[in-house]
């Protein structure tokens, strides 16, 4: 496969002013007729070029130029394109193509999911629908007519407004849609099916009434309310926070079962994976309720950050994704607890994105090259991209950041632009210089910040020395501009900060927090008039996506855990104490010695469980030891078995020692009110189920009784799954089998619940899980063509470190088999599943060799898709 480079970008040679599409959906074949009003792009250097349109996997029937049918010699078709040798400066091109959505298992382009037709065009799926200039800087006005059998497909949807419709004598009907906004083809959508909907409305800030509909299969109609309420909250929030008003009188969401990602922001017709839109207490966990709200918001926010202002090319993907993730994270923070949201996001970033940045697929948030763009919908582009926007917001301050985003939207409305345009708008609006900051866009890798502190009693000064470094597999980047938020904590609280050589900061009322501009590879910051030896609170709120190293003593971590006013730092201090405790135990295990649990950790947990004034969600988060994946990421040549055994030993010790407190927390947080997915209830359930988890680790009869009672009496899926998961990972074999059978029996007709049943089993850390996973793949509930099922079984298994990394390599071989099968069916999903194998350098030599062997077996297959080839070849390099 060919590599495409950002440096080779050229403006399009042709533009498409109008795109008129006509679909006839029939069982054996779909006919697509397109009518494109085109002209040469005056900005292109080549004014005599042939017309080359993208297109693949379809059968071309006829091409007409300005009404004249072209003979076969006037054009050329290959696997990926249609070339018309000679065209005038302005013309109308019509194509008729045949496609087979019913055979399209890649879930890109037009495909079938259950009994409906739907589309997924981002990034390059439109070229599987008709020949087109399938690139985001070609923006066009679309009209779409859909013809289909009326009984089977009563609902026919596309972008924009429904402008006409009618019926034919053969039982078919048709609907014509017109989108008044120019858009790139990746935002095109079509849906046809036997769907029902819930409807609501929203009146925008300037008084426009918008009809909101969520379309689902009839059986799911009772699971749409939460998404609808989330949508209305998002619309209001975007008006208030970013001044963004919705721009049409209609906004539709459709839920589909087969979908490669979470959802898609097609103009006025968002298409969602059912798992990201359907929710009701009986079938949906708290975490999934929160995910629905966040994803509904994310897709809605794209209407401005992505649709009204779109990307010039796919290298700019983070322009829309990073910014929109930042926007949805701010929304979630405003809807719930800001600290909890921050901790969850940082935990994810540090575990998953840092690993990507340290591996062979590392790339800057604006990549410089790719073979297959679908491989770059990554945690780096999304989550690290959002961190870069967050740093800009931090550096500019709230008001200037808003001024910058207003300028960006106003300046570029209706355009396809670049990350540079975004940064420039921020600079122009604020007057701040972001030149060095721009390196975050072009350099990969996680900067390492080594910080040390020295207190001088004689001069009452405290000096912080900050050294930054960054290494990636490919290169050593130049120094980043890193905003380092910090405070100095004394016995009685945060100390006033006076930085040597700086004016006192008038913005901050008490001057106890500062953001240091770290811009060099080594810098010193001296604070004056510091009356006592302080404990520094560093990287407050996780002010930059870096790995911080400060040699805190365990007592200092204990101090930060209870005294830092920054919630993120309190949580992080607890995590770092957990890291030190686990490292000791891992080392002891590897040396064949007894594993001793750090007593401070036990007393910290004891304190967390005893102090009723603390936020319950935060307590639950702090009671969770650093994950095995996080530990693997920070240890050279990770020994997965040792990490797992040490961590389990620590957990069982904590469970045994603090049994009474866990029981008390369990009882105190058992709610009697009806379920609500609100902050308080979610927090209480989270703490209660954390307590249940620990209680079950002690495997007492009392814990088992509690767990079984919770499982049997649960009125909501959060409690039900927490109990089931505790049972599945316990040695109460008979009760476990009974609960699993009962659960399936009860929920077999609810696909999303069955997926949770699959994943709790695939994620079981006990021995023998791989055989169970293989059996699950033969179960009628499994379907390899459905990405949600694949993620629930294969994805959950690969996240189950101790089983996936079994020393005999069986986990790797199993994954390679699945990737080889999926390569032919759904290359995007196959390539995504490869992720865990690509991180082989993180693991001890024996594991790394077996992981490479599995990769080599995949590499040796014939007919590897571009998606899989790119990831495997780069990982083996
Ligand atoms: N912008 C959407 C991207 C997306 C996608 C990309 C590749 C393959 C399938 C896909 N489905 C959706 C999702 C989003 O970030 O909002
Ligand atoms: Zn997005």
Automatic annotation (TrEMBL):
Domain Peptidase M1 membrane alanine aminopeptidase per the UniProt entry, residue ranges: 227-440
Residue ranges constituting the Peptidase M1 alanyl aminopeptidase Ig-like fold domain according to the UniProt record: 445-550
Taxonomy, superkingdom: Bacteria
Listed GO biological process terms: proteolysis
Required cofactor names: Zn(2+)
GO molecular function, one term: metallopeptidase activity
The Aminopeptidase N-like N-terminal domain, residue ranges: 18-187
The EC number(s) this enzyme carries: 3.4.11.2
Enzymatic reactions: Release of an N-terminal amino acid, Xaa-|-Yaa- from a peptide, amide or arylamide. Xaa is preferably Ala, but may be most amino acids including Pro (slow action). When a terminal hydrophobic residue is followed by a prolyl residue, the two may be released as an intact Xaa-Pro dipeptide
Domain Peptidase M1 alanyl aminopeptidase C-terminal: 555-877
The entry's keywords: Aminopeptidase, Hydrolase, Metal-binding, Metalloprotease, Protease, Zinc
Family (UniProt): Belongs to the peptidase M1 family.
PANTHER family documented for this protein: PUROMYCIN-SENSITIVE AMINOPEPTIDASE (PTHR46322:SF1)
Function: Aminopeptidase N is involved in the degradation of intracellular peptides generated by protein breakdown during normal growth as well as in response to nutrient starvation.
Protein name per its UniProtKB record: Aminopeptidase N
Gene name, Swiss-Prot/TrEMBL: pepN
